[in-house]
Amino acid sequence: MMLTYLALLVLVGASLPAVVRSFLPPLPRRITGITPQAVVVLGAGRRQRKGRSSLNTRGLRRLKLAAELAHEHGLPLLVSGGGQPPKHDDEPTEADLMAEQALRRWPRLDVIKEFRSRNTWENACYSSELLADRGIDEVLLVSDRAHLPRALLCFQSQGVLAQAAWSKRLPKQEWLPSAGAISMVPEIWYEWLALVWYHARFL
């Protein structure tokens, strides 16, 4: 009986935005005085629908915010994501899919495609090379809130000064149970484990 009550308590806690927010990995200390010269958005994976690749929901959410910011501020948009090697030579990379979506809405955007990366570390390494070619070292970095601490550390390790930007997913009602809060719990635990691994391997 005690275990049942404990499991129920954990489930209730995991549904409360205030509780879930308190477990998010902390963002690195904000670097002041940055004047972004580009917007960088990191891919979140793709899915197959009727034999065709498309961006998943998280990737579309990230891209929407990034493209809006790039359009609003008149900045180039760097889309970063290669994913797994395509099954066919003509299969688009994740960066291709993101660029296509962004240009469909804002055809005059200056879009830079980074299509070699397979993880966050490679996102930072390959994107920093493309940014350096344009003399850019200050950016707005768009991803999910749980993922941004790891992403920011990776970009900073490559000499890129980045400000974080993300779409709000947790509702304002801190103590009202939310399915969205529950959906973030696995992401948060994954990111804590990934931070430990990245510090041991890369940072």
Order of helices and strands: HHEEEHEHEHEHEH
Beta-strand residue percentage: 15-25%
CATH architecture descriptor name: 3-Layer(aba) Sandwich
Mean pLDDT across every amino acid position: 86
What sort of overall outline do the alpha carbons produce when their principal axes are compared?
A: globular
Query: Looking across the biggest beta sheet, what order are the strands in?
Result: 5-4-1-6-7
Number of strands: 7
Domain DUF218: 37-194
InterPro entries: Cell_Envelope_Assoc (IPR051599), DUF218 (IPR003848), Rossmann-like_a/b/a_fold (IPR014729)
Protein name: DUF218 domain-containing protein
GO biological process, one term: peptidoglycan metabolic process
For the structure shown, list the relevant keywords.
203 residues, 7 helices, five-stranded parallel β-sheet, globular, Rossmann fold, alpha/beta
